[in-house]
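Q: What residues go here?
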């Protein structure tokens, strides 16, 4: 759910000041964020659909493996142990820093989801040697580093996140964990100041995990300060009726537990991290075997990077997204429309339908490159890849050397 970025980028892109949809830049600002301990029994208990993905039969040493096949292997692995030596050697043999970091990033994310927090911290630390790490894995890296006691590393990751992202959900997740960190440190008044805007306007909350925290947080306060936790739960039920966190919150309220019991350490893993790993609403079968196409396929490699610049745009999404799902996957963001057009050409040659949308951020106009998932665009995806299932399409994006995140 990220976008690869390199320091050189495609030569035809005209500005070396690079940023992508998930690039992370910014000055240091001491902050701590996204503390989540996985509740396997609620969010991760369902069978992982990626375990059923068809991947090439690769030997453990991976000596002759292709980059795209290794990415699919990591995504589908239910046990990384037999492949670890081969994966690390494969990563270190990459001439491309982008590919090397990408493999360690995916390895770290998969280790996290399999419950190997120490491994996740180790691999994600290796992944973030580049100047422009991605937000999704930075959130996981910060959480993993915090859990294993690497507080300086966690703080470094988090300051990048808060300084660079203007995505509402990301910032709310960041503020959620910042509040939890203040609670863990015994700084209750600081936590109050962080949570107060959301307590006053719970309808503005964009992520279910924050509403869950608010329910529990109210029960930690003195009666004189406490608000009705049911108010947050009603918003949660209305906005996220089928979300696992809604059921988790319902069970918590029924249990009569104190809000402080495990508040800091027993957070559900947010769906934000599980885009490519969560159980699909409906399975559409395994990925088609595209190995024969790859040999001569001019699909863009992992070194293709998005860069920035500045100009005017026209395209907008034409199909409305379903209320319970994303309308598309953003794979790049540019200041120059010409650069966005170059990426669109590459993506369309690889079989992806693409839209370019204008986005105003911090008094500057950006051009976001989005692969739509709905309407007629879903038919194009099905024609190209044999499926329009978003998890499968995400894997195809990754295999093509790109990353992205959902947009609604």
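A:
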């Amino acid at each position: 759910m990220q976008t690869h970025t390199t320091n050189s980028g495609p030569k035809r892109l005209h500005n070396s000041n690079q940023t992508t949809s998930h690039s992370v830049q910014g000055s240091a600002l001491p902050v701590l964020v996204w503390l989540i301990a996985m509740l396997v029994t609620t969010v991760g208990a369902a069978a992982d659909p990626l375990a059923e993905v068809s991947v090439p039969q690769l030997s453990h040493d991976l000596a002759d493996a292709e980059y795209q096949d290794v990415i699919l292997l990591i995504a589908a692995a239910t046990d990384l142990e037999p492949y670890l030596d081969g994966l690390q050697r494969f990563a270190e043999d990459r001439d491309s820093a982008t590919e090397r970091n990408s493999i360690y990033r995916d390895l770290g994310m998969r280790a996290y989801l399999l419950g190997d927090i120490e491994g996740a911290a180790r691999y994600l630390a290796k992944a973030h040697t580049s100047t422009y790490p991605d937000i999704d894995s930075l959130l996981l890296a910060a959480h993993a580093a915090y859990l294993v006691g690497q507080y300086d590393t966690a703080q470094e990751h988090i300051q990048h996140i808060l300084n660079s992202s203007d995505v509402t959900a990301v910032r709310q997740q960041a503020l959620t964990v910042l509040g939890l960190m203040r609670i863990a440190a015994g700084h209750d008044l600081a936590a109050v100041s962080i949570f107060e805007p959301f307590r006053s306007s719970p309808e503005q909350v964009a992520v279910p995990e924050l509403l869950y925290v608010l329910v529990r947080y109210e029960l930690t306060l003195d009666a004189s300060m406490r608000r009705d936790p049911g108010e947050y739960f009603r918003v949660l039920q209305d906005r996220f009726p089928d979300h696992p966190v809604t059921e988790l919150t319902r069970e918590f309220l029924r249990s009569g537990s104190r809000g402080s019991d495990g508040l800091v350490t027993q957070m559900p893993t947010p769906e934000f991290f599980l885009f490519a790993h969560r159980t699909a609403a409906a399975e559409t079968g395994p990925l088609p075997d595209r190995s024969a196409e790859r040999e001569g396929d001019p699909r863009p490699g992992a070194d293709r990077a998005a860069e920035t610049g500045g100009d005017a745009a026209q395209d907008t999404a034409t199909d409305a997204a379903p209320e319970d799902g994303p309308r598309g996957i953003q794979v790049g963001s540019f200041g120059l429309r010409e650069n966005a057009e170059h990426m669109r050409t590459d993506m369309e040659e690889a079989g992806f339908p693409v839209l370019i949308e204008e986005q105003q951020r911090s008094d500057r106009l950006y051009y976001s490159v989005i692969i739509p998932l709905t309407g007629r665009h879903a038919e194009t995806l099905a024609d190209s890849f044999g499926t329009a299932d978003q998890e499968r399409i995400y894997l195809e994006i990754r295999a093509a050397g790109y990353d992205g995140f959902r947009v609604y």
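A: Context that may help when evaluating the design: The two ends are 14 Å apart (CA to CA). The chain has three domains: 49-164, 171-273, 291-407.
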